[in-house]
Amino acid sequence: xxxxxxxxxxxxxxxxxxxxxxxxxxxxxxxxxxxxxxxxxxxxxxxxxxxxxxxxxxxxxxxxxxxxxxxxxxxxxxxxxxxxxxxxxxxxxxxxxxxxxxxxxxxxxxxxxxxxxxxxxxxxxxxxxxxxxxxxxxxxxxxxxxxxxxxxxxxxxxxxxxxxxxxxxxxxxxxxxxxxxxxxxxxxxxxxxxxxxxxxxxxxxxxxxxxxxxxxxxxxxxxxxxxxxxxxxxxxxxxxxxxxxxxxxxxxxxxxxxxxxxxxxxxxxxxxxxxxxxxxxxxxxxxxxxxxxxxxxxxxxxxxxxxxxxxxxxxxxxxxxxxxxxxxxxxxxxxxxxxxxxxxxxxxxxxxxxxxxxxxxxxxxxxxxxxxxxxxxxxxxxxxxxxxxxxxxxxxxxxxxxxx
Length: 404
Hints:
This protein is α+β, with helices and mostly antiparallel strands. It has one domain. Helices cover 20% and strands 22% of the residues. The protein contains ten helices and 13 strands. Strands 9, 10, 11, 12 and 13 form a five-stranded antiparallel sheet that branches. A four-stranded antiparallel sheet has the order 6-7-5-8. Helix 2 runs antiparallel to helix 4. The radius of gyration is 21 Å and the shape is globular. It starts with 12 loop residues before the first strand and ends with a helix. Belongs to the DyP-type peroxidase family. Involved in the recovery of exogenous heme iron. Extracts iron from heme while preserving the protoporphyrin ring intact. Its cofactor is heme b. It is an enzyme of class 1 (oxidoreductase). InterPro entries: Dimeric_a/b-barrel, Dyp_perox_C, Dyp_perox_N, Dyp_peroxidase, EfeB/EfeN.
């Protein structure tokens, strides 16, 4: 898993589907010198492979810019039209992820490298009804239960088809989104769109994850690929059900607004107790550094838990949820200001798991019942999508479903 190549000596490296490096010079023609190339920086040269056992955009660090889009098929579009659309989308995504121009390109990203572009496709619950394949819908795609803290906007939730587009350059993201939207014109329409961001590669060092808009390091205790059970937790096994989901994963997407005015009024010590970690360095309140394991059993001199009973880190910990865990890979967002001047900002929470009913749902139920952080956030949109395994060259994700 390669997050970001180092600033020095990284030009010409690209990220492979399995997290390895694809070597080779990557550049753009020098103006006025046909055939000559100027090496791209490490950011522009980063390349992710579209093909492989898993779709891109799941493994590795989340990129600096992202758009999450949901589409609904038009009434006249069925199984055949959906298959043709996914084939068009995959062909375009595969080209753009290598830094090449897709068919009928508009030139928006001219002169830029692939910049770590990754495009991921998924299917929502109602997609299967729309294409006449309700019997093939996975059990794991059953609608998520309602949670007491939800304030969901149905117009920004759900959708037949879901696309995650991410890259380290915003122009590359826009180019990909515009290309895919144009390719869908006669088959599907955009239902909703969410734009997010993370720290730009090379902007900071020494922390395992980016900071969210509450100022906290996000993702310290995330699942790691080197963990023995990582693949079992994140990906549907080859002999799993249904067979067309082998190598795939389920994405839960939540737009979580942070009530930053109320949060920032709290003293720093109070905010640290809500999270169970120190904002300054991400270390647990039980001591050590950012990556020091949290000691949920530690007590102070008066016998009180050092990590409060309702601290987010305690309530969400696998030890508090029967071992349930998921791969979190999220983005911050800022969509302006409300009429009262408060920022419409927060987290586009995206998590990946082999079965959301065994990972996201039990953890969210526990958070819903007793997380101190709940007073400072609001879940405003939600989605659950089946993301099939990766495509073979010339194919597209979900081909076994739509053409099987």
